[in-house]
C-alpha cells in the first residue's frame, strides 16, 4: 500500500488547480487514459482520456462568474486518494452551492481512475455575504506541516477578508508547535487552539 504522503500532495495539487480554475494544470495530473466516472443529479458522466476528464470540470466551473472554495480536505482511504470540497458559485447574479467527493487511484504521480459523487448546484437562499462565509475549513488529516498542507493553508489564509476565519483540523501532534510558529512568522493570528482544531484569522482583524 502507498504511504499517505505519496498521495495527498496529488490531492492538494488538484485542489490548487481547481481553486484557480487552471484546467490545463489539472489535466496534467490525469493519466492520458484516465478512467473518469461522475454521478451527478442528471445521471452518469464518463470519460476515457485526460482531456475528457478535464472537460467535465471545465464545463461545471469554467464559466461561472465567481467560484470560491469554502471547505476542502484531502486524505487517503486504504490505497485510494480521497478529495472533498464545497464551493459557492455565482452565474448571472444567481448564487449556488455545490459539494463533490472524489476517489482516485494514483500511479506514478498521476490519477489513473477517478470516481466522483456530486450534490449538484443547489440554490442559496441568501447571497454568501460574510455571515455565510465567515468561517472557512481545511482538513489536513494526520499530515504534519512538513508534509505539505502549509501551502494550502497559506493559500486559504491569504483569501481571508474582514472577520473571516480559517478553521484547520490536524491530528498530527507536530502541528501544535509548527502551526503557531508559522502564524507568528507570517503575521496571522491563531485565535483558538483546542485539541485537533485551530482557528486562524488575518492580522488586520486586530486593527478593527
How would you describe what is shown here?
- The protein has 208 residues and is α+β, with helices and mostly antiparallel strands.
- The chain has two domains: 4-123, Nuclear Transport Factor 2, Chain: A (Roll), CATH 3.10.450.50; 135-207, 2-Layer Sandwich (Translation Initiation Factor IF3).
- Helix content is 27%, strand content 43%.
- It is built from five helices and eleven strands.
- The chain has helices at 4-19, 23-28, 50-61, 149-158, 175-186; strands spanning 30-40, 43-47, 66-77, 80-91, 94-107, 110-118, 122-123, 135-141, 165-170, 189-194, 197-201.
- Strands 1, 2, 3, 4, 5, 6, 7, 8, 9, 10 and 11 form an eleven-stranded mixed β-sheet that branches.
- The radius of gyration is 17 Å and the shape is globular.
- The protein starts with a helix and ends in a 7-residue tail after the last strand.
- The model is unreliable at 1-5 (pLDDT under 50).
Amino acid at each position: 500500500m502507498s504511504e499517505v504522503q505519496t498521495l495527498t500532495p496529488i490531492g492538494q495539487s488538484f485542489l490548487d488547480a481547481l481553486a484557480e480554475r487552471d484546467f490545463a494544470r489539472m489535466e496534467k495530473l490525469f493519466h492520458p487514459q484516465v478512467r473518469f466516472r461522475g454521478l451527478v443529479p442528471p445521471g452518469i458522466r464518463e470519460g476515457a482520456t485526460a482531456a475528457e476528464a478535464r472537460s467535465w470540470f471545465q464545463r461545471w466551473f469554467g464559466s461561472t462568474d465567481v467560484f470560491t472554495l469554502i471547505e476542502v480536505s484531502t486524505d487517503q482511504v486504504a490505497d485510494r486518494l480521497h478529495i472533498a470540497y464545497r464551493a459557492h458559485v455565482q452565474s448571472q447574479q444567481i448564487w449556488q452551492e455545490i459539494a463533490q467527493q472524489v476517489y482516485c487511484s494514483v500511479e506514478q504521480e498521476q490519477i489513473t481512475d477517478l470516481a466522483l459523487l456530486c450534490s449538484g448546484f443547489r440554490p442559496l437562499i441568501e447571497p454568501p455575504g460574510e455571515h455565510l462565509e465567515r468561517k472557512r475549513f481545511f482538513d489536513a488529516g494526520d499530515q504534519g506541516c512538513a508534509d505539505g498542507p502549509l501551502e494550502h493553508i497559506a493559500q486559504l489564509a491569504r483569501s481571508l477578508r474582514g472577520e473571516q476565519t480559517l478553521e484547520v483540523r490536524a491530528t498530527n501532534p507536530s502541528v501544535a508547535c509548527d502551526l503557531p510558529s508559522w502564524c507568528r512568522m507570517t503575521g496571522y493570528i491563531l485565535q483558538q487552539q483546542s485539541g485537533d482544531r485551530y482557528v486562524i484569522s488575518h492580522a488586520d482583524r486586530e486593527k478593527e
